[in-house]
Amino acid sequence: MRFPPSFLDEIRDRVPISSVVGQRVNWDRRKTNVQRGDYWACCPFHGEKTPSFHCEDRKGRYHCFGCGVSGDHFRFLTELDGLSFPEAVERVADMAGVPMPARDPEAEKREKQRATLHEVMELATRFFQDQLQSSAGARARAYLRDRGLTPATQQSFRLGFAPDSRNALKEYLAAKGVEKGQMEACGLTYFGPDVPVSYDRFRDRIMFPILDPKERVIAFGGRAMSSDVSAKYLNSPETDLFHKGNVLYNHARARRAIQKDGTVFAVEGYMDVIALAQAGFENVVAPLGTALTENQLDLLWRMTSEPVLCFDGDKAGLKAAWRAADLALPAIEPGRSARFALLPEGQDPDDLVRNEGPDAFRAVLAEARPLADMLWQRETAGGVFDTPERKAELEKTLRELTSRIRDESVRFHYTQEMRDRVHSFFGSTRGRPARPGDRDRPPGGRGQWPRGGAATPGRLTISESLMRSSLVRKAGGVLPLRETVLVVTLINHPDLIDTHFEEVETLDLAHADLNRLHSAVIDALAHGAAHERQAIVEALQQAGLADCWQRCVDLVRKARQWPALEDAAAEDAREAFSQALHLHRSARTLHRELKAAEAALATNPTDENYRHLVEIQAQFRDVQATEALVEGFGVSSGRAGRSF
């Protein structure tokens, strides 16, 4: 039986290849990175003691660096289990929950027709490319040059030009033997009952080929050269090849780049993607001129567990971010969420990298905010909550938001998180009588303002534009010393990673930059980097984290935390790291327990809950006092006069 390629693609996409391979191998815990869908094991095809068999969910492929075998879901089952190809397809389809297709001669005929349509689209792409380089494309070339796109970039994205003619493409394709019906099926010509003679759909436009995941041209986007036309950008219509809501621009290239960069960024337009790729950000995609759809978001999640959605710094961009947050909310689950990066007001990614360089965009990405922050900011920004009714309305709105989450465990934690934020926002006096000094404390009573935005004691939140101003953004960029010391120590003394592998792999870090460094280190070691400082530092540089690393080292030097530095004795580094790790884990655990105790007291203000909160607060203060003692006066390491 011949299976439609679309059916095979669907079941491959639905079932991670690790689920197929994992039934026959045991994954190596040290090299495997589950969050990134990157797995290692001893090869099931030949005997070995050191894992050299690599399986990658994003690509849907496996490869053994020892014996050289490689393939997809079906080849694994046919070669290892001895199944026939139809049997292998049936097993994967069963895992995907997709019924096997009945033999459909008409469907097979349509598949052949689609293959022919791909050939037609390739011919059209080459025609547009040639036109861009001709005398007719001089104005289009000048426009692209003014936008800062090099000839190499134009060629890489196969940009072209549709001449200002009703029949130029039509006549070119006809001369190549393409039938009228094929042009119409590809969406290259206008036709219909009220159009006696079909004509070219794209005229006097810069052409952007849109590729499918197999890098076949399936549609075009065209930017008008004239300001008089009604549609600045025009996409191909829906065809057998192209369904706009199911496609991401630059999907195939971004999926390849994830191996190096670890995540994917979604921006708003073609030019943003191309400008960012030219600036070194190849892991970028864009929806096709419309708001992000559920299917496009699902494509992002198939590539990475936490894509970064990047929006222009204007009101329209902010509204688009909020729409995307609402779209993502019901579908989030453990290991599947999104972060949001908002550009400085009035700028898009293309403007930013052209005017300020790649580092300016990296700074925006480094400050990407979690979904919970976006929802909180939207519901509180600019609002005044100075009456019981307004406070109750905010609580009701947040409850309704969190109730949309389908996953029970994530819904529980979001409900708790929003309850904690509300309690901090309105002050921690709920559930107990007011005490002297309450009015002078920040909301939450622990010396800090709530996340997701600053507030005054009158509960007036700041605007989103002020939230993204340089003053507020810089204020939130301080690296926590203890976390920084832990990460710098690991990089300067990588032997500690093996000694504390499980603790290091699951290290809970609050700061985004430190999380990026930590992920890059684990990823480098998983991909065979030597357990040597220089090799890891080089991996950080290749990942674009050199500035971040230097900032951490400068902080450690300024704080005189000498055991974390490169020239510290191994014994001193080991002892200081163990002490810092213990304090860190204790503080993070107690912080979670403290939040839970505060929520319990606010919900049920009993004496027992109050005593429990006081007990947790006392433990938390003890840990903070111990930490202050260690950081301020040092620990004994056999070398008097030096502090940790």
Explain what the structure shows:
It is a single chain. With 644 residues, the protein is α+β, with helices and mostly antiparallel strands. It folds into five domains: 5-96, Zinc finger, CHC2-typedomain (DNA Primase, Chain A), CATH 3.90.580; 105-242, DNA primase, catalytic core, N-terminal domain (DNA primase DNAg catalytic core, N-terminal domain, Alpha-Beta Complex); 251-367, Dna Topoisomerase Vi A Subunit, Chain: A, domain 2 (3-Layer(aba) Sandwich); 377-475, no CATH class; 481-633, Orthogonal Bundle (DNAb Helicase, Chain A), CATH 1.10.860. The protein is 51% helix and 10% strand. It is built from 28 helices and 15 strands. A five-stranded mixed β-sheet has the order 12-11-13-14-15, with helices on both faces. Strands 1-2-3-4 form a four-stranded antiparallel β-sheet. The protein is globular. Mean pLDDT is 81; it is low at 428-463, 465-476 and 624-644.
Condensed summary:
The protein has 644 residues and is an alpha+beta fold.
Q: In the CATH scheme, what's the topology name of the largest domain?
A: DNAb Helicase, Chain A
As for the number of domains, it is 5
β-strand number: 15
Describe the largest sheet: 5 strands, mixed
CATH hierarchy class name of the largest domain: Mainly Alpha
- How large is the radius of gyration? 28 Å
Low-confidence stretches: 428-463, 465-476, 624-644
Overall 3D form:
globular
Q: What would you say the CATH architecture of the largest domain is?
A: Orthogonal Bundle
**Strand composition percent:** 5-15%
Write out the strand line-up for the largest beta sheet, numbering strands in chain order: 12-11-13-14-15
The number of helical elements comes to 28
Helix content, binned percent: 40-55%
